[in-house]
Amino acid sequence: MSDSMIRVERRGHVTIITMDRPQRRNALDAAAQAEMSAAFDSFAADDDQWIAILTGAGEQAFSAGHDLKTVAPDGPEGLPASGFGGITARFDLDKPVIAAVNGFAVGGGFEMALACDIVVAGPGASFALPEVKVGLIALGGGILRLPRAIGMQRAMGLMLTGRRVTAEEGLAMGFVTEIAGDEGVLAAALRWADLLLEASPLGVRATKAVALQCIDEPLETAMGRQWTLPSVRRAQASADALEGPAAFNERRAPNWTGR
């Protein structure tokens, strides 16, 4: 559609979702939120799409978060059930998502990046949860995810002040995976996607599920429960579980099917 605010491109097994509102610094209003949620719904339901990359149009911003020209939601009912940008509360998605952060990611933009599994940042990228500076609260998961990613005291230093940090600071703190070089942030994200495609897609999904669903449990409990997760059981019973060892023994690249 010509008035679409989200672009979706599929390259093989990789879905690229681009927030396309550069004139609004890729800030999301209610209509854009609905589009984002639908795009991630389609990705999640498509067995031939194994990896998603989330990025923003233009060089200035990944996303400025909620569009402040519209009324901010005063409760979760004001957002898609899957959270801000259709991703921050999508807890059942076991497929990996890569954030390609070009420019600044602030407010909900930072929260969306934190909800991704790998964060690739351009050298000029920056990050902040500035809600406290405009009388709002970062209730899209940022207050909960950032301490888990970098520790409580570091996170408090950012969350209570709204201070913006550079990509280099994010890398040192631990929430940025890599700073892209001359290739550009999307090319770097696609390189990460290529690395993921070398691995069993169901094994990757099971690994993400165990890491996210068991991380807060006592080790003894988590060691037992991991075997019961649907993603783990599916991976163990798959054709890919037989293909991997066969390819290794035959000294060839595996032919993954995701089934």
Describe the secondary structure blueprint for this structure.
Elements: E1 6-11, E2 14-19, H1 30-45, E3 51-56, E4 61-63, E5 97-101, E6 104-106, H2 108-114, E7 118-121, E8 126-128, H3 142-150, H4 152-159, E9 165-166, H5 167-173, E10 178-179, H6 185-197, H7 201-214, H8 219-225, H9 230-236, H10 240-249
Parallel strand pairs: 2-3, 3-5, 4-6, 5-7, 6-8, 7-10
Antiparallel strand pairs: 1-2, 8-9
Helix pairs in contact: 2-3, 3-4, 7-9
Structure, described:
The chain has 259 residues and is an alpha/beta fold. The chain has 2 domains: 6-197, 2-enoyl-CoA Hydratase, Chain A, domain 1, CATH 3.90.226.10; 201-249. It is 38% helix and 15% strand. The chain is built from 10 helices and 10 strands. The strands form 2 sheets. The protein has a 6-stranded mixed beta sheet with strand order 1-2-3-5-7-10, sandwiched between helices. A 4-stranded mixed beta sheet has the order 4-6-8-9. Strand 1 and strand 2 (14-19) form a beta hairpin. The longest helix is centred in the first third of the chain and has 16 residues, at 30-45. The chain is globular. The two termini are 33 Å apart.
